[in-house]
Write a structure and sequence with these properties.
Layout: H1 8-20, H2 24-40, H3 42-46, E1 49-51, H4 64-72, E2 76-83, E3 88-93, H5 97-100, E4 101-103, E5 109-111, E6 117-118, E7 126-128, E8 133-134, E9 140-141, H6 147-151, E10 160-164, E11 185-187, E12 192-194
Parallel strand pairs: 1-2, 1-7, 7-10, 10-11
Antiparallel strand pairs: 2-3, 3-6, 4-5, 8-9, 11-12
Amino acid sequence: MEENPKTKSEIRKDIDLMIDLLSESEIAKKTILIEKRLFEFANFIESNITLLYFDGKKAKVFTRDIIQRCYQYNKIVVLPAFDPETYKMTLMKVDNPEKDLIVKAKDMLEPDPNRCRVVPIEVLDIALIPGIAFDEKGGRIGSGEGYYDRLIPKLSATTRKVALSFESQIIQQVQMESHDKYVDIIITEERVIYKI
């Protein structure tokens, strides 16, 4: 074990640099493999109400195709709307991404509160949780804003918390702090990792 482990900030920068070295075609190939594993994953296949997220600058695995494909599988798609003042999120049902999403802060697409209904957190079957880095025990480093660290403890014990990650985002150990929360499963382009 390292005497001076890297800070979360340093890990975020390292991961960003590694991802930046990948070509668009490499990212696309890896994303397709992750998507394939996700849609073969029993918990995902059986889920009906699914919390997803729109990829942005901080999300590494693109989710737009996954969201579109969920509609083909007749899943209820739930996306978060963020409140940057309180660092809380509202979960909203999105029936039509073309009509139900608006551009918000940081050029992120979010559900339009005038068109989308709020979804109670306890009805979610599965939650896709974004992150910058993960370890094999389900440790996670997020963007640093804490939205998902506040959300995860509110999820039902039966709601599977799943992360989509490139293999290069898996590190030896995430130094977890008391406010940090774990995911149950990590799906990469190479494997499915169950929390040890």
